[in-house]
Amino acid sequence: MYKGFSAGLLGFGNRTLKEDIPLAAKYGYAGINFDIVKEAQNDPGEIKALLDTHKLVSGGFGLPVDYRNSPEIFEEGIKKLPAYCEFARKTGSNRCITWIIPWSDTLDYKANFELHKTRLTRVAKILEEYGIRFGIEFVGPPAERKGKKYGFIHNLDTLMELLQAIGTSNLGILMDAWHWDLAGQTYGDFKKIPGNEWVVMAHINDAPKGIPAEEQQDLSRELPGATGIIKIADFMKGLLDLKYDGPVYVEPFNEPLKAMDFENAVKTAKAAMDTVWPK
Q: What are the pLDDT digits (tens) for 24-66?
């Protein structure tokens, strides 16, 4: 596995690859995540050359299809997906990710499962044609489901059921230390993951002190290793034992970090990553 850079995951979404590739190299990152909708307006050859010049790999992108919305919006996204995939292939990017809302106020579990299976199968098959792996993230905190009419996929077992139902060869998991821990997963659960090809991307972070697990709020986190609430050492050991070979990103959703000037935030996040990185 390698250290990945993402301005967006640090809370700075207005950046571009041309700005950030040199900065990522300066601070010792090996790969970089990007917004494919914004970046696809560029020449992919120019982006690939910039990555190569700075000895970085393309560490993946978020799914540019809104699969949670109306059929019309979903179909519009599906039509555009091949062009985005072509851009990704030309830049050397072969990892795409998305996440699942762990509840619904309109669909029961079975109906919601069928909707996700149907739509994400179509997405996965297009990505598969372009050699792009597809990682899906479950959202674990119990507070995310509180007060909702129907619960949905929110842990490893239920996510694996969906992945197996879709069944394409490129499917895997976006592993997030926050969601892993707050869903009640432990180091022992790594044995349920068949191999390193099942992990497409990883996020690391920590949780605020003094808040019970069932009350932790998804958009209020800490930098990895800041509090020790999230069992980050076990999480990183699990990835190592799987021989995971992809990017690891800091995703802190942290207001003090977002209030810093950008380069100071980059340095701070990288220092936090270094403190929890396996020696």
A: 999 999 999 999 999 999 999 999 999 999 999 999 999 999 9
* Alpha carbon 269 to its chain's center: 17
Q: CA nearest 273: which of 226, 217, 234, 228?
A: 226
CATH superfamily of 2-276: Divalent-metal-dependent TIM barrel enzymes (3.20.20.150)
Between 44-53 and 71-91, two packed helices, what is the crossing angle to 10 degrees? Answer: 50
Burial 4-29, CB ≥16 within 10 A → b, else e: bbbbbbbbbeebebeebbebbbeeeb
Average pLDDT for residues 206-230, to the nearest whole number?
A: 96
Q: Which residues contact 15 (CB under 8 A, 6 or more apart)?
A: 7, 8, 262
Paired residues of 64 in beta bridges: none
- Per-residue pLDDT tens digits for 167-185: 999 999 999 999 999 999 9
Helix (H) / strand (E) containing 133: strand 133-137
CA distances from 85 to 22, 131, 171 (A): 24, 9, 16
The predicted model scores a pTM of: 0.96
DSSP state of 96: E
Question: What ranges do the domains of the chain cover?
Answer: 2-276
Residues counted in the chain: 279
